UniProtKB/TrEMBL annotation:
<dbReference type="GO" id="GO:0003824">
    <property type="term" value="F:catalytic activity"/>
</dbReference>
<dbReference type="InterPro" id="IPR007197">
    <property type="entry name" value="rSAM"/>
</dbReference>
<dbReference type="InterPro" id="IPR058240">
    <property type="entry name" value="rSAM_sf"/>
</dbReference>
<dbReference type="Pfam" id="PF04055">
    <property type="entry name" value="Radical_SAM"/>
</dbReference>
<dbReference type="Pfam" id="PF12345">
    <property type="entry name" value="DUF3641"/>
</dbReference>
<dbReference type="GO" id="GO:0046872">
    <property type="term" value="F:metal ion binding"/>
</dbReference>
<keyword id="KW-0949">S-adenosyl-L-methionine</keyword>
<feature type="domain" description="Arsenosugar biosynthesis radical SAM protein ArsS-like C-terminal">
    <location>
        <begin position="216"/>
        <end position="348"/>
    </location>
</feature>
<protein>
    <submittedName>
        <fullName>Radical SAM/Cys-rich protein</fullName>
    </submittedName>
</protein>
<keyword id="KW-0411">Iron-sulfur</keyword>
<keyword id="KW-0408">Iron</keyword>
<feature type="domain" description="Radical SAM core">
    <location>
        <begin position="58"/>
        <end position="196"/>
    </location>
</feature>
<dbReference type="InterPro" id="IPR013785">
    <property type="entry name" value="Aldolase_TIM"/>
</dbReference>
<dbReference type="GO" id="GO:0051536">
    <property type="term" value="F:iron-sulfur cluster binding"/>
</dbReference>
<keyword id="KW-0479">Metal-binding</keyword>
<dbReference type="InterPro" id="IPR026351">
    <property type="entry name" value="rSAM_ArsS-like"/>
</dbReference>
<dbReference type="InterPro" id="IPR024521">
    <property type="entry name" value="ArsS-like_C"/>
</dbReference>
Length: 351
């Protein structure tokens, strides 16, 4: 049966408070496992503090053409939360004035926002060094109106970062839906055809891998080699880097963990793989996440758990670098997903 969003299913877990209850109680309440706060306190790393802003990540809406099993956004075609042009204008003011070197547009499928192209055109004028759009690839082949997206990305020198859970059809379609693999391959070929991902090209194309079950990702460098070899041999596809991302126990992945009775084992494996050196570089220390309605969060995960920044500046219209720098990061047990093994962020490993 096709996956539906938690919201569409009217699941308890569509409520972020319910997710936070689960993460705060049970094995973390009875002392079986240390809370994230206690764990980072052992090495004197509590409270986690925000450093200088380097990456501004903007979520332009939760609507998506896919409904992947493990989506931390709980995105899908039924999600109607979409950033308006007015909020985009407020974001543009910050983009023009911030010293951040990276702008990262995400969703849902960001391309489904009706003002997406306008926003990209305007944001590209700010000349930020690295302008990322997180594209799920299939959107490029979903409808004729999106077929020219590769050219549009090229025109604005966008860095394309795309999910690709595996180089085989079976594993990809199992996690992301029937037909996703074939459409993704076609989209990658379209991107390669205009120069994206080619070895000496400045048109950056990176892929994101996340595990298909209740286990941690393997070594990023060796997985990148395997992906490159398989995609080249089977489909003549090139790409630059592979980011291996750990699934955080929130939203549909949390639902999957509970339904498959893997929640406690997964939390044990995250805590066992805790790596204090990954804590220093977790992405919330240099990133700010903006929601579709303009509110500020330490990261996209905190956005989905509705844990706003601990600052007087709570909305993009109130953005103030001095107020936000040095803020205490809001944490809970989902943060163990960022510090397991080599660590995990939207840019892959951190340690
Ligand atoms: S493509 Fe991305 S945003 Fe859309 S459902 Fe899948 S994981 Fe979620
Ligand atoms: S989940 Fe967010 S707040 Fe927690 S460590 Fe990761 S990036 Fe930081």
């Amino acid at each position: 049966m096709a996956t539906k969003s938690l919201k569409k299913r009217e699941s308890d877990l569509a409520n972020s408070n319910r997710q936070l209850d689960i993460l705060s109680n049970g094995i973390f309440k009875n002392g079986e496992l240390p809370t994230f706060k206690d764990k980072i306190s052992e090495t004197g790393q509590f409270p986690l503090k925000a450093k200088k802003l380097e990456i501004l990540q903007i979520n332009v809406g939760y609507m998506c053409n896919q409904v992947c099993d493990h989506c931390h956004v709980d995105a899908g075609p039924d999600r109607k939360e979409i950033m308006t042009r007015d909020t985009m204008r407020e974001c543009l003011e910050v983009i023009k004035n911030t010293g951040a070197h990276t702008l990262d547009l995400t969703g849902g499928a960001p391309e489904m926002n009706p003002d997406f192209r306008w926003f990209v055109e305007e944001a590209a004028k700010a000349g930020i060094k690295d302008f990322i759009v997180r594209s799920n690839l299939t959107i490029i082949r979903a409808n004729k109106k999106y077929y020219d997206l590769p050219e549009f990305f090229k025109k604005h020198n966008v860095h394309v970062v795309s999910s690709m859970p595996h180089w085989t059809r079976g594993k990809t379609d199992k996690q992301r839906g029937d037909g996703v693999f074939d459409k993704s391959i076609r989209a990658l070929q379209d991107l390669n055809a205009i120069g994206y991902g080619m070895p000496s090209s400045d048109l950056r194309l990176d892929l994101v891998y996340n595990p298909s079950g209740a286990f941690l990702p393997g070594d990023q460098a060796s997985m990148e080699k395997d992906f490159k070899k398989a995609l080249k041999e089977d489909f003549d596809i090139d790409f630059h880097n592979l980011f291996a991302i750990t699934n955080l126990p929130i939203a549909r992945f949390l639902d999957y963990l509970i339904a498959s009775e893997n929640y406690e084992d997964y939390m044990y494996s995250l805590v066992e793989a805790y790596n204090p050196s990954a804590v220093e570089n977790v992405m919330c220390t240099n990133t700010l996440s903006v929601s579709w309605d303009g509110y500020l969060f330490d990261c996209d995960f905190n956005q989905m758990l509705n844990l706003p920044v601990n600052s007087k500046a709570k909305h993009i219209s109130e953005y103030n670098e001095e107020l936000l720098e040095g803020r205490n990061i809001v944490i809970s047990q989902h943060c163990y997903g960022c510090t397991a093994g080599a660590g995990s962020s939207c840019q892959g490993v951190v340690a």
